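User: Just a sanity check before I run the rest of the batch. Below are the structure tokens for the first item. I only need the designed sequence back.
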């Protein structure tokens, strides 16, 4: 019997929303992200630990977590900037600037898989529709945030009310690569809201509000839907 305290590792996770339900239930959440300011000088906030710096420096910290905790799940949200097919028109220019740009991006994808495989831990890797399907393998699952909005209460308040509707009532096709016993949760869908831009075009998601290049916009765009996070916890805890 493993008597170590239980923990979750989440890579490329700026918001920590994916591990929030676990942390609130007593698990230790280790969230690694390029934007965090710490570099293995772990910052403790209740059950949260944030690790920054770059992915090639995380090996020792990840090893320390496995040595001291019973890690029950590994999440990965690798940057999609060089992978998402929505940016395909820029691929040629990126290849000219850096012929290895695709390999560099895929190394971050494989990191989550390799960590989980090395320790026999369930894992989930998330990305939008991307070249991961052709560079590695097709996703195991696809979903929209609204598919899991029913896991949030009726009086739910969005963290980004001017952009993201309450109860994750929007569409954004999301792909998952999973393994080692990860359980895909049962959907509890809500009806997605529709948005109309200044030109009168209708959208079933907040895409037209999230098309900017600012870091804040990118962070909102990549934030884990809270309903889906709750569903994953319910199915896998």
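Assistant: Here's the designed sequence for the first item:
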């Amino acid at each position: 019997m493993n008597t170590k305290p239980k923990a979750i590792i989440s890579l490329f996770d700026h918001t920590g929303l994916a591990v929030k339900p676990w942390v609130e239930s007593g698990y230790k959440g280790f969230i690694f992200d390029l934007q965090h300011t710490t570099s293995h000088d772990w910052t403790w906030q209740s059950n949260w630990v944030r690790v920054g710096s770059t992915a090639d420096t995380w090996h020792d910290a990840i090893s320390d977590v496995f040595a001291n905790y019973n890690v029950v799940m590994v999440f990965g949200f690798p940057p999609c900037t060089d992978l998402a097919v929505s940016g395909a028109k820029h691929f040629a220019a990126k290849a000219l600037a850096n012929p290895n740009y695709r390999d560099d991006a895929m190394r971050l994808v494989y990191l989550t898989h390799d960590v989980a495989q090395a320790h026999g831990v369930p894992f989930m890797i998330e990305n939008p529709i991307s070249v991961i399907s052709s560079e590695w393998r097709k996703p195991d699952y696809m979903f929209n945030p609204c598919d899991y909005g029913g896991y949030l209460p009726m009086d739910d308040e969005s963290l980004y009310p001017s952009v993201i509707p309450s109860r994750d009532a929007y569409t954004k096709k999301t792909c998952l690569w999973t393994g080692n016993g990860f359980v895909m949760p049962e959907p509890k869908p809500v009806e997605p809201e529709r948005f109309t831009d200044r030109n009168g075009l209708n959208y079933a998601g907040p895409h037209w509000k999230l098309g900017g290049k600012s870091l804040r916009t990118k962070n909102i765009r990549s934030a884990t839907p809270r309903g889906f996070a709750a569903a994953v916890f319910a199915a896998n805890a």
